Amino acid sequence: MTTPAFDMEAAATAVETVVSGVTEADFERRTPSEITVRDMLAHVLSFTEGFRQGATKEAIGRSQPPGPAPLAPDWRERIPAQLKALVAAWREPEAWVGETEVGGVLAPAPQMAIFALDELVIHGWDLARATGQPYSPAQEDLAVLLGFLRDTPREGIPGLFGPVIDIPAEAPLLDRVVGLTGRDPAWAAT
User: Which of 28, 36, 42, 112 is most solvent-facing, going by the fewest CB within 10 Å?
Assistant: First the structure.
């Protein structure tokens, strides 16, 4: 039986904490991803369900690439519930076996799990920065992401990551991970 390589609970809890601090007054603020907080919350709703389905493999052959969607009125209740469901789904050993599909992309399940972790950590950071909240993801999660992102091409990956921002090796791990996704760790809301 396959043992999950890592657990997503710490990352999901960090996102839930940030989301709980978001107010409607924050909705039009820009995030480091150049979308509004409202649109980022809608994205969180989308990817948490998409990657939960990736763990259960229920969407193989049926998933669609993500697109813009309005923010559901019950986002404040749904995001925490979907985060918990995502964590639970990836705790099942079967989630890590074979291939799965998320957003119209078929890939090995362990790779999809890393994509899910990346979405949690990076978009948690995006929301925290946009709303001026503290954010401290687990060092273990950042180490997984550093290994995953280490070979990102300098020019980035269109549609996923902007051009890599050089961050000194002695910088905090979060700053190095964020820089590999094309985000400036010094970014602050204006």
Answer: 28
User: What are 90-139's pLDDT values in tens digits?
Assistant: 999 999 999 999 999 999 999 999 999 999 999 999 999 999 999 999 99
| Complete DSSP assignment for 20-70 | HT--GGGTTPBPTTSSBHHHHHHHHHHHHHHHHHHHHTTTTTT-------P
**By three-state DSSP, how is residue 107 classified?**
strand
Instruction: Determine the Cα–Cα distance for residues 95 and 20; give it in Å rounded to an integer.
Output: 28
Region of 158 (left: φ > 0; alpha: ψ -120 to 50; beta: rest) is: beta
CATH class of the domain at 9-180: mainly alpha
| Buried/exposed 1-13: b ≥16 CB within 10 Å, e otherwise | eeeeebebbbbbb
